[in-house]
Amino acid sequence: MTVKALLTDMFGVIAQIQPESARTRLVRIAGAEPDAFWAAYWAHRPDYDQGISTPLDYWSRVACDLRMDFGTEQLMELHAADIDSWSLRHQDMIDALPRVRAAGYRLALLSNIPTSLAEHVYAVDEFMDEFEVVAMSCHIDAVKPSPAAYQWCIDRLDLPMRSCSSTTANAMWTPPQRLGFRHGSIVEWTISSPPCRSKRAGYERH
């Protein structure tokens, strides 16, 4: 079946993962041992990404795991530093997005992301307009690799899963094999044979 749409991740594909300098800054602000900090950081991320936890809830749970007590100013600094840590972008990937669309492919974005970071992305990233479907985990009540997250996108693209290609930088977030997604990259779809063109559907923002 011809690939008609590319479902891409945000972080690790279009945006860079946290650089070492940003990771060091977070650990320094927390005043914690690095391994313990990152274990607590990721342990509570699913609920945060799904929109279940507020920033205060999230960082308070991190502090509890570390057996620490973050003060109000420290919590605010950690929250700001966390958002900043995800702020770098891969410009070559951003530049490729309009070429993918010009080749006749539809674009969808699926990202595990907390509410405050999603708001930041919408505020500063103009390239978001390149996507026909945008699925932020905090807005759709599902996080990868849950099949529900991928199904949410497929339902709005109104395409069979085998006609969609998925790209992610983290193997943990690869769609379950039984869903039938193909795997590809943004660059790959700028040079591959385009599908039959059809009228582009309206934006589906959540």
Tell me briefly what this model is.
This protein has 206 residues and is of the alpha/beta class. The protein is 45% helix and 11% strand. The model is unreliable at 189-206 (pLDDT under 50).
Q: What features would you describe in this structure?
A:
The chain has ten helices and six strands; from the N terminus they run E-H-H-H-H-H-H-E-H-E-H-H-E-E-H-E. The chain is of the alpha/beta class and 206 residues long. A six-stranded parallel beta sheet has the order 5-4-1-2-3-6, with helices on both faces. Helix 1 (20-30) packs antiparallel against helix 5 and helix 2 (34-43) crosses helix 4 (55-65). Mean pLDDT is 86; it is low at 189-206.
As a percent range, the share of strand residues is 5-15%
3D shape: elongated
* Arrangement of strands in the largest sheet: 5-4-1-2-3-6
What distance separates the N and C termini? 29 Å
- Indicate the low-confidence ranges by residue numbers: 189-206
CA-atom Rg in angstroms: 18 Å
Instruction: Output the structural class.
Output: alpha/beta
The residue fraction in helices comes out at: 40-55%
Kindly report the average pLDDT value: 86
Described by strand count, sense and barrel closure, the largest sheet is: 6 strands, parallel
Total number of beta strands: 6
Summarize the SSE layout with pairings.
Elements: E1 5-8, H1 20-30, H2 34-43, H3 45-49, H4 55-65, H5 72-85, H6 91-102, E2 106-111, H7 115-124, E3 133-136, H8 137-140, H9 147-157, E4 164-167, E5 182-183, H10 188-191, E6 204-205
